[in-house]
# Entry
Amino acid sequence: MAKSGVQFTKDNEYYTPKEFVDRFGQFDYDPATTKEKAEEFNIECYDTIDTDGLTKDWTQYKRIWINPPFTIKHEFLAKAWETYKIAKNDIYILFPIEFVTTQRFHNLVGGGKVICTKWKNKLSKWIR
# Structure
């Protein structure tokens, strides 16, 4: 996702391995991906850095997968929480554990489940 004034580097975004996403089932929307990754994950509806998923309505989707750009992850979390309060959809967001333990994270959400995995080292090698 591009946002005015934000400088992106190759360290800002990471690919998620397909086998990791597959553990959570099929998704019908990803607001922060590439065409290639959406095709690989068989996600029919998606947005890219050019189409800016933060500006779209997510309430129409039942299962959403998000691996947000690192520098604006809090914006995706806020949008996901607001969407969930309206639609009660299933939203899976990939965050570094360091973010989940911050006050900023806790100020943005009012509930949900946190799943910790052993994938951190593998994810860090999959740069978009």
Observations:
- The chain is about 30% helix and 10% strand.
- The CA atoms of residues 5 and 71 lie 11 Å apart.
- The radius of gyration is 14 Å.
